[in-house]
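Sample A.
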Amino acid sequence: MLFKNKTLQYVFLVGLPLVVHPTSSFAGAAEEIASPTFDLNNNQYRILNLPILYPANDNRTNMMLLLSDKGLASIKAFEVDKMSLWDTSSGLVPFYPTELTQASENKIPNKRAFYDANDHIYDERCITLKSGAEVFLQQVSNHKKISQDEKSSLLEQRNQIKNCQQSIPLIQVNTEWTQSAQQYASYLNGIILFYKANYSSATKIFTAISQIDEPWLKETAQYMLIRTTLNELYSQSLGTYGDLDTQKVDQALLKTFFNRITDYFKLYPKGQYVASARGFLRRGYWIANQQDALVKEMIWQMDHPRSDYYNLDMSTLAAEIDRKVFGLENFNAKTLNDPFFLAIYDLMYMRQSDSTQYRPISWSELNAQKPVFKEQPELFRYLQAVHLYFIQKKPQDALNYLPKQKPNSIQNYLELSQYTLKGVILEKSSDKNLVEQYWDHLLAISANPYQKALAEVALAIYYKNTNNQNAFLGNHSKIKQATLQKAFITQIADVKALESIITAKDSSADKKNLALYTLLDKSLMTQNYAVFNKAYTTWLPQDASEYKAYNSKIKAYKSEPHFEVFVWNGHEITPTLKCPKLSTLTAGLEKNPKNLTYRLCLGEYMRNQGTALENFYGDYYYGPSFSQPKNAFTGETFSRGEVYKEIIKSNSKSELQAYALYRAVMCYSPSSINVCGGKEATKSTRKQWYAQIKRDYPNTTWAKSLKYYW
């Protein structure tokens, strides 16, 4: 079977060379949950997140939601890939943390200069390749003391610097040029050395230029001394695996770095680089392992978005905080004395975990934080409600900390979080009709795509739990997200619902094809042969053999189910043991489902089709799923391993039994892992099968080919 795996990339765009390692986003998670689900009632870490403040979310998601509520971040609805229903693997909710951060931008622009915000560059020294060139070209072009020929030469030289990896020779400064042109050429040499990571030589040039009278060069060189020292400091502080080793930090160089920032602010308190220079403070505090100073600087930035020193970038801030604060090896929660950081910490430590090294925050520890939240009492009451519900398992008590009245609108992510948690609690205790009305109300008052998508998820879960399949059907269904529709069809829909989708005039071809594939797959695997035969003869496309999913020659079929797996013309095991084509085989099984030859042949079909269906239905589905969906198809799941056992136990010596013995042994070849389904056979049983075929059927090619049992 063909699968499509979505590569998960947690990109930490933090301004210095990329180092990927587990962060405290995973605190409380014994292991990352790799099977994403539509689930609101969960506090175990999930790779797919919800637009609410929740323990199950990645830290970065919770941070972005709080940053939005603080008026700092604007979170747009990211564009969901438009795919066929068969290919659909993700929607707006739930989402990957990186999808949310990449869809976020500053609500209040920062004042940083010399920064290519749209470039995915992981090395600090390289982030100004474009913006630095633009400013340089502008300065040279407008300079009145530099001749046109000198300008052309300088601009040509700067345009040759395109990346940090290229080998660029230093410029030979022409002594016949004007003094200004020579100074700009020297500056370019400093830039070349900087990008080549020759920091000591670059420092000498920038130091010299910082003493000249050319205003732009003088200030820019002073600023570049900060960057050069920072990069030299960081490069010398890396451990064996490329991560920061605080034991290797050169304290003298660290002091020089901070002094250079101080010098710049003294010389240029309103300089063009003040925001960027102050941003380097955070990196210095991180390298210096000064968590308290780092957190305080971040808080100052969040509290002063109108300042000329404001330098936060919302698309990267969450990853920076997660790595450089919560991801610190010696992270100390006692340094947190701000609602933003404490809320993230509290949610992180209200996760479910099997790890012996993890302990959730206690009720008394949480309540001790109340004074810190005096300006944000609703946020604190929500955190208390989360603790009561998830940690203390007291849902009714948790309700006392949530708003009593049903709102007419949702103004922020905290309100959405309160509403959602209350709904989750009500689902456990209230009348089912009231619960549906509650989620319907959220859908009705939804003011943005995230609220609407979350309401759909909540309703879909409710419909699943109450087995209201009709609510998913038809164009009037409230469930519009493709991932939810797909999950319903592949995991919840029963025979009646699937047939309804296939025959409905308002069903799209995508829906019909997915429903048909699911119906064929599940009915065959659960041995509902009458259902399978009806679907096969009535709805299977005449050119089913052309439907090969991504391998289809017809472009339109590449994004549709691979119906060709149901096109099987039979198989000749021996001249006297032959299997008919699939439609003939299942017609025979409908009349005589216990026929061992037919059953063995169905096993041959499963084996010959490359295990397309053999690994049990549902394997073709990728994307978030409903947690613990009830199997809507009755019947025992077919397993060729069990068929072989039935034939072996028949005690009727025959070619059929010889082949069954051979296949039963081969089920465990060569890894001793059962690939045929059914109950695991002990090694002693496999040994008996091996001995039996050697004893009873010594002259068969099957017995002769077996050298081992596994």
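Sample B.
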Amino acid sequence: MKKGKETKTSVGRKNETIESRWVDVGDQLIHYRASVNPSNNNLPPIILIHGLGVSSRYMIPTARKLAAHRTIYAPDLPGFGRSGKPARPLNITELSDALARWMELLVIDRAVLLANSIGCQIVVDLALRRPELVERLVLTAPTVDSEARTVFRSFLRLLLDVPRERLSLAFIALLDYLQAGLGRTAQTFGYAIQDKIEERLPGVRHPVLVVRGQYDPVVPERWAEEVNRLVPSSQLVVIKGAAHAVNHNSPEQLAQCVLGFLKSEE
């Protein structure tokens, strides 16, 4: 496959709104999901960025809800999902660089970035170093809480979240973790803990929506409020009944929040 050339395959059920695609970025293939029938091409697309160890697969519920309103993309970052595996795990900045490179190959000039968990750290890094690529940010369950910056405390919070999520997420996560490899996932976890997002947030100059699930043990209320306070132009929304993976367990509510946030842009 030539660099930048796409291939496409159908995913999911009949009349699916999201399809699977690949693009060659030169040294590896990047898999991503995209709208079958792009909507509102005159508006910036929405790119969904996954969290630790998983892939864009758990973003599909929210992607489906948003696909009727905007063009949607959801990449598997290098090393995860069905994308190519670099020789070593990439840190937050390197994952951000890979995201920027992928956007440029797809000729996505500017986008709304909707991320979950450590995906929020990646898009914040992108907003600071490549601000021209970012229209707005939606930070759902942003990590890492400054008061839980140890492997033990962060991992314990993730374990506490497991019974609060849908059972379907457990199957998705298991498959994705096996595909990524436990070593790669653990190293990426370490990079995320080292990344002090609270020191970066004041530099973000884009409009930001912070979203927290009501029962998210990974992102307590205090931390979500701190993230919201640190960003110059930000608003905080709490989704009732939701846990950490808001994009998977509460897609309808999340989509409504996102569309309301974007309404002023249209």
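B remarks: The domain at 6-265 is CATH 3.40.50.1820 (Rossmann fold). The first helix runs from residue 60 to 66.
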